[in-house]
Design brief:
Layout lengths: L2 H13 L11 E5 L3 E6 L13 H20 L5 E4 L8 E6 L9 H7 L21 H10 L4 E5 L2 H17 L17 H4 L6 E7 L4 H20 L2 E5 L7 H11 L4 E10 L20
Antiparallel strand pairs: 1-2, 2-4, 3-4, 5-6, 6-8, 7-8
GO molecular function: oxidoreductase activity
Protein name: Nitroreductase family protein
InterPro entries: Nitroreductase-like (IPR000415), Nitroreductase/BluB (IPR050627)
């Protein structure tokens, strides 16, 4: 096995730690001649909760960012081409890895160190606020992928989102393995108003398309790793956006017409619990 093949498999291993709906890891990789193909694994899609595949592609984008970051950590200079073939809609990206590379740098190393420890928390944050400069930093990270990050600081807007999250808890049945933050009382406005709520964040895009969903995943993992590097963890509330009526209401009333793709809260951690991940061998496909 060549050094590239060894490093490619290490990158696939690291991609297991990217967030995805229900922790299903709906992606597959094909390792070729100094190239890695990233495909959506439609067999692991959620036909009821995610009929369009929006959350599936967001998860794939997060895995793609993790893969590229790990390759840079290993001394490579990956070149990512998104949606390279319109005739192959499930082929999301090709990553070319030319020979050579260089020192990954301190910033790459710092972010790579967050890949495995980062995971969705159950939302029981300490009452301490996140660092003052964190929202601006995360806004810049999301913007690199063409995604807007809005920190929801107005109490009325925050409480409205909390009420909608609580409504979604009642309108959709609880399914084990989905959003860790739901069914713990964190969707209720009286709880969201307490100090342990953390920072409420929306990721939005001007369009609602596969390219936008994939870009959201890239931005999401940038945001999560940067937040983790600053000591913050995330609690997801994606179930709110799975209900078309609630998502449309949030788009019109709270996002200025932009499409909400991710709703989460960021806060400082208490002791963590790490969820299971699919083994790396299950994510590598020998041929398409």
């Amino acid at each position: 096995m060549s050094r590239f093949e060894e490093d490619a498999r290490l990158a696939v291993e690291a991609a297991r730690w990217a967030p995805s709906p229900f922790g299903r890891r709906p992606w597959r990789f094909r390792i070729g001649d100094r190239r890695i193909g990233v495909r959506a694994d439609a067999g692991r899609a959620l036909d009821v909760a995610d009929p369009q595949g929006r959350e599936m592609l967001i998860g794939c984008g997060a895995a793609l960012h993790t893969l590229a970051l790990t390759l840079r950590h290993l001394g490579h200079a990956p070149r990512v081409r998104l949606l390279p073939d319109p005739d192959l809609p499930f082929l999301l990206a090709d990553i070319d890895v030319p020979e050579g590379g260089g020192d990954p740098g301190e910033e790459t190393e710092r972010l790579y160190e967050q890949v495995e420890p980062r995971h969705g928390d159950r939302g029981v944050f300490r009452p301490d606020p996140v660092p003052a400069g964190l929202p601006a930093t995360l806004r810049e990270e999301a913007g690199r992928e063409g995604v807007t990050l809005r920190a929801v600081t107005e109490p009325r807007d925050r409480d409205a989102l909390g009420a909608l999250a609580g409504a979604a808890d009642h309108l959709e049945p609880y399914v084990p393995g989905r959003d860790p933050a739901r069914s713990r009382g964190w969707g209720l406005p009286e709880v969201w108003g307490r100090p342990g709520t953390g920072l409420v964040v929306l990721l939005t895009t001007p369009e609602d398309s596969p390219a936008a969903w994939l870009g959201t995943g890239l931005a999401l993992q940038r945001v999560l790793l940067r937040a983790r590097a600053e000591g913050a963890s995330a609690a997801f509330h994606t179930h709110v956006l799975e209900l078309p009526e609630l998502r449309e209401l949030i788009r019109v009333r709270l996002c200025g017409g932009r499409f909400p793709q991710v709703l989460l809260r960021l806060g400082l951690l208490d002791p963590e619990q790490v969820p299971p991940r699919r083994p790396a061998d299950a994510l590598v496909q020998e041929d398409y």
